[in-house]
């Protein structure tokens, strides 16, 4: 079937100002996501000093593991649910409308987290956990919608770079959470006593609503401009079957005449040939959905399990709890997070933006999995015999390897698993399938950040029960990376340099050929 002129023009359009504007609008949601998800690490350290100062021994100033796990898991569970819910709504109701609702949910949930209803310890943690879950719903909605919006609007030559640029806003969100924590705690430390730290952590969470609110305001104040229509062109043409309206929107976005992109013989609307989750759907797209979901699941196990290193890093670079106040400890933790972000996380994103449309998704994803596996094996195999011995407590290579793990996660599968699901599936299923893949990833994130955190303790300590130990845990994580590399090689298809419609047709052709060969 011949391609629609409006889509051909969209795929070959030169990079213009509105492309970068779309990156900022879509990317600010992910900026807010990272701010909210990564600030909780800093907040939990502060809350341990505020609410658990009465505990004795090594547990003093430590938030109990069950409470920490619940707060982390609440947001991740909400994110998984939000990806499924808003991903489907994005295909049914349109990307723009649903994206605005997800932003609003993020704004109000961030504010509500800061105003957790009471000051009693139990009440604070219960309400905070609930609002973190609601925040996760909004964050989950942002994932499939922001990636789909950018993929459907970008040209095929630079589509990967544009989606990666949207995703790279997460790095700046992490940096912002560290910066805000340093500034807020420094001001409170200079102006007040530690007893007012309960206000400080609430203010840090509250400020997470600002970028989402600005993005929502920016989008709502321009409801009929070209920058709004740009997001809906493919959806209008392929899902709503309104090719003429898509052509008119395209004329306002690009510097082209309507006569150049309007169809000479407009086709009547064609009923969609098969529904979601039908046998035909799985025959055509089952392999792609498996590849996207499984690799995202595996990389998030590894990416979110990197909190395992934090206790060792804090032990090396932080003063003992009794020697610093609540603000000083939070500032130190924020500085460590900021250094890691600037030196490894953000460069990893930038490398992905530059190379994604030169090397391709599959090569970068396999490379990232491979080097992450190598790093986990280097740290894991001699963990107790080398890295944790007194002679190597000051060994800087531990921090270097930790940073490299983050670098190759972002210059690798953490970025590519966000990009590929937005390119492989038909327009009417695109955000749904991205949401399914992302939800699988967040299940992996819960396993990595909660399950492996509990399993990594070799003895009963800090409120954790005895597990398999750090050495075995890290070797398992290295094996998870190798499994991700194998699945990528055998199941993930390359999408570089191809239009979204070509990827869809290629997927269907491959499935038919495989079916005929059986």
UniProtKB/TrEMBL annotation:
GO terms for biological process: arbuscular mycorrhizal association; cellular response to nutrient levels; phosphate ion transport; response to symbiotic fungus. It is found in: Membrane. Signal peptide: none annotated. It comes from the Eukaryota. Its main location: membrane. InterPro entries: MFS_dom, MFS_sugar_transport-like, MFS_trans_sf, Sugar_transporter_CS. Keywords: Membrane, Phosphate transport, Symport, Transmembrane, Transmembrane helix, Transport. Residues 22-496 form the Major facilitator superfamily (MFS) profile domain. The chain crosses the membrane at residues 20-44, 65-86, 98-117, 124-141, 161-187, 199-218, 334-356, 368-387, 399-420, 432-456, 468-491. It is a multi-pass membrane protein. The keyword Transmembrane helix applies. One of its GO terms (cellular component) is membrane. Belongs to the major facilitator superfamily. Phosphate:H(+) symporter (TC 2.A.1.9) family. This is Probable inorganic phosphate transporter 1-8 isoform X1. It comes from Vigna radiata var. radiata (Mung bean). The gene is LOC106766791.
């Amino acid at each position: 079937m011949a391609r629609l002129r409006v889509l051909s023009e969209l795929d070959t359009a030169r990079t213009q100002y509105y492309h970068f504007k779309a990156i900022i609008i879509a990317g600010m949601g992910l900026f807010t996501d990272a701010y909210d998800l990564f600030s909780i690490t800093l907040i939990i350290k502060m809350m341990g000093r505020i609410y658990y100062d009465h505990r004795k021994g090594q547990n003093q100033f430590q938030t109990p593991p069950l409470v920490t796990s619940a707060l982390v898991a609440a947001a991740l569970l909400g994110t998984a649910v939000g990806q499924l819910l808003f991903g489907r709504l994005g295909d049914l109701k349109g990307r723009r409308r649903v994206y605005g609702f997800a932003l609003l949910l993020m704004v109000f949930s961030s504010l509500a987290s800061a105003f957790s209803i009471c000051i009693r310890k139990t009440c604070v943690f219960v309400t905070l956990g609930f609002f973190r879950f609601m925040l996760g719903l909004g964050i989950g909605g942002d994932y499939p919608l922001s990636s789909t919006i950018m993929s459907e609007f970008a040209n095929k030559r630079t589509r990967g770079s544009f989606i990666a640029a949207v995703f790279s806003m997460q790095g700046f969100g992490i940096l912002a959470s560290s910066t805000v924590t340093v500034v807020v705690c420094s001001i409170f430390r200079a102006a007040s006593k530690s007893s007012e730290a309960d206000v400080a952590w609430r203010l840090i969470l509250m400020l997470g609503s600002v970028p989402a609110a600005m993005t929502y305001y920016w989008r709502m104040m321009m409801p009929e401009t070209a920058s709004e229509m740009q997001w809906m062109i493919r959806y209008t043409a392929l899902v709503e079957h309104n090719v003429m309206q898509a052509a008119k929107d395209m004329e306002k976005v690009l510097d082209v005449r309507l006569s150049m992109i309007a169809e000479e013989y407009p086709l009547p609307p064609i009923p969609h040939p098969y529904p979601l989750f039908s046998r035909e759907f799985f025959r055509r797209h089952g392999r792609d959905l498996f590849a996207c979901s499984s690799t995202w699941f595996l990389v998030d196990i590894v990416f979110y399990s990197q909190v395992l290193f934090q206790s060792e890093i804090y032990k090396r670079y932080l003063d003992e709890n009794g020697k610093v106040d609540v603000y000083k400890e939070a500032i130190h933790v924020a500085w460590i997070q900021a250094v890691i972000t600037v030196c490894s996380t953000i460069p990893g994103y930038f490398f992905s933006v530059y190379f994604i449309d030169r090397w391709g998704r599959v090569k970068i994803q396999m490379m990232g999995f491979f080097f992450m596996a190598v790093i986990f094996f280097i740290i894991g195999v001699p963990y107790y015999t080398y890295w944790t011995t007194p002679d190597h407590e000051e060994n800087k290579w531990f921090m270097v390897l930790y940073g490299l793990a983050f670098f190759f996660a972002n210059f690798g599968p953490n970025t590519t698993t966000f990009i590929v699901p937005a390119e492989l599936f038909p327009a009417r299923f695109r955000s749904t399938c991205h949401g399914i893949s992302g939800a699988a990833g967040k299940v992996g994130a819960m396993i990595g950040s909660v399950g492996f955190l509990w399993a990594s303790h070799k003895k009963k300590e800090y409120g954790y029960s005895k597990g398999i130990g750090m050495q075995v845990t890290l070797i398992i994580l290295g094996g998870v990376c190798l499994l991700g590399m194998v699945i990528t090689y055998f199941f993930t298809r390359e999408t570089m340099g191809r239009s979204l419609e070509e990827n869809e047709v290629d997927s269907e052709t491959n499935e038919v050929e495989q079916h005929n060969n059986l």
